[in-house]
Every structure is written in C-alpha cells, then in structure tokens.
Amino acid sequence: MKFSQTHRLKDIAALIDCEYVGDDQFPVTGMNEIHVVTPGDIVFVDHPKYYDKALQSDATIVLINKKVEAPAGKALLISDDPFRDFNKLTQHFAPFHAFAKANTNPPIVGKGTVIQPNAFLGNEVVIGENCIIHSNVSINDRCVIGNNVIIHSGTVLGADAFYYKRRPEGYDKLLSNGRVIVEDHVEIGAACTIDRGVSGDTTIGYGSKLDNQVHIGHDTVLGKNVLIASQTGISGCVVIEDDVKIWGQVGIRSDVRLGKGCEIMAQSGVSKDVKPGDVLFGSPASNAKEKFRELAAIRMLPNFIKNN
C-alpha cells in the first residue's frame, strides 16, 4: 500500500510509539509485505530467521523487534511487537469505513456496465465499461475491475487475507489493506472468493476465466488467459504465469510459481514450483506421464503377488 503523501520517519515512529534509527526526515511512502516491497516502504519482521531477508529487501524502513545495525540507506523502527504495530499503521492509513458514512468515496462505474439487484459495491470501488455484475456479488473496498468483465452471482472480491499470528490467548489477525485487481475480459464464476492483498494487490490477469467455487488467496497474481476449473483452492502469494490451465479440485500451496503454459490435472496437490509447459498430476503433484505409469504398476501388484 502506498500512502497518499510522503511521511517522515519520526512521525511514523510517533504513531506507534517506538524508537527509530535514522534521520528524522527519512521519507516513508508506504507499507508492504516483503515479497512486494519497494524503496520507501515499511516491512515488518519479528523472527530472527527472517531478519536478514527483511534488512536486505527493497524496503528502506524495517519495523523490527531487535536493535541491529541499519544497512546503508535504510532506517529502522524498533518495536517490541512489530506485528501489532504494523496493524496499528494499517488502522491509521487504511481504516475500515462503513459504506453509509458520508466522508467515504462512492464507487465509479463505467459506461455500459450493468449492476444487477442486490450486488454490493464498497468504498472507492472502480468498475470499467461494459461489465456485468450479477446479483449478490460483493465487491469490497478499493477493488478495481477492468472493462468487459463478467462476475457471476454470489462471488466475493476483497475479503480479508487468511493471515494470523499465534499468541498465548489465541490467534491475532494481521489486518488487510490491499486490493483486488481484475483486468479486462475476465470472467469469474458463481460463488468464487478472491481475497485482497495484505498490503499489495491480488491480481486476476487479462482474459483469465474462473469456474464456479474457486478460491484465490491474498497477494496471488494470475497472468493472462489463465483457466481455472471448479473447487480449486489457491493459497496466498502464488504466482501463476500466462496460459496456465488448472483443472477441478486442485490445491496449491503458498509461495509457489506455476510456469507459463503448464497444466495441473484434476485433484492434484501442488507444493513446489512448476516449470513452464509441464503437465502435473497427483498429490504431491509430479509429471503426469510418470504418475500414470506408477498407478498402472500399482494396479498390477495384486496379480504379481498372487502369481508369486
């Protein structure tokens, strides 16, 4: 998430009441998760395993729970609980607003777009031209829909990310301040759920088609002309390149990349990166031809045992 204006390091530190390392006037322009940070962003880290990754990332402000030496050109925010303070910043810069509040921005709807009865459009939603939004669709705050998009009944865009930290008293939610971006010529089936990014964007690329009952997790990015069949579940922070086909009841783990033009056959479980053009099947998914040979061999085992 980029802020509407540049802020000073000392002012950000005052918002969350923490120490800082760096010039008072050090510029802060946004806040993001580590996989989408750019210079000017705040990134948070609260586990020693990820200190180096955060400190060496493109983020120039690191919200951290240990006093360390700041890399050249970067600043630190020293907090006893970075997860909590990242949430405080989200509440300050992207607070939840009830739709009826007068000080919020109404949706923008393009020429020729049809919004069917009982569809809900949140604050600052933008919808392009010649779209069809069917009944009982929910498009939550700050979602952006392109031109010539069809969204079928019961679909929810912009629900919060499934992201929690375990604490002694239970699970603490990381607040979402990102968006869902749907590019031109996309069709989304009925009863799909597409979560917004925690701080970045969940993106459905140009010309992609989603069947009914597809779930896409936070910050996942689909390329162009991706085809996804029913009951597929895609975790957060997945990258799916152009022209990928994913068939029914596939499950995909977070942080994996599916290469251009690959195909995932039905009821497969994907836990690792997939090379461009590969065809995978099974759980865990592997080369489809090899998997089918394995299954054929297994079917022959009873006769083999009987004859021996």
Automatic annotation (TrEMBL):
<keyword id="KW-0808">Transferase</keyword>
<dbReference type="GO" id="GO:0016020">
    <property type="term" value="C:membrane"/>
</dbReference>
<keyword id="KW-0444">Lipid biosynthesis</keyword>
<keyword id="KW-0677">Repeat</keyword>
<protein>
    <submittedName>
        <fullName>UDP-3-O-(3-hydroxymyristoyl)glucosamine N-acyltransferase</fullName>
    </submittedName>
</protein>
<dbReference type="Pfam" id="PF04613">
    <property type="entry name" value="LpxD"/>
</dbReference>
<dbReference type="GO" id="GO:0016410">
    <property type="term" value="F:N-acyltransferase activity"/>
</dbReference>
<keyword id="KW-0012">Acyltransferase</keyword>
<keyword id="KW-0443">Lipid metabolism</keyword>
<feature type="domain" description="UDP-3-O-[3-hydroxymyristoyl] glucosamine N-acyltransferase non-repeat region">
    <location>
        <begin position="26"/>
        <end position="92"/>
    </location>
</feature>
<keyword id="KW-0441">Lipid A biosynthesis</keyword>
<dbReference type="Pfam" id="PF00132">
    <property type="entry name" value="Hexapep"/>
</dbReference>
<dbReference type="InterPro" id="IPR011004">
    <property type="entry name" value="Trimer_LpxA-like_sf"/>
</dbReference>
<dbReference type="InterPro" id="IPR020573">
    <property type="entry name" value="UDP_GlcNAc_AcTrfase_non-rep"/>
</dbReference>
<dbReference type="InterPro" id="IPR007691">
    <property type="entry name" value="LpxD"/>
</dbReference>
<dbReference type="GO" id="GO:0009245">
    <property type="term" value="P:lipid A biosynthetic process"/>
</dbReference>
<dbReference type="InterPro" id="IPR001451">
    <property type="entry name" value="Hexapep"/>
</dbReference>
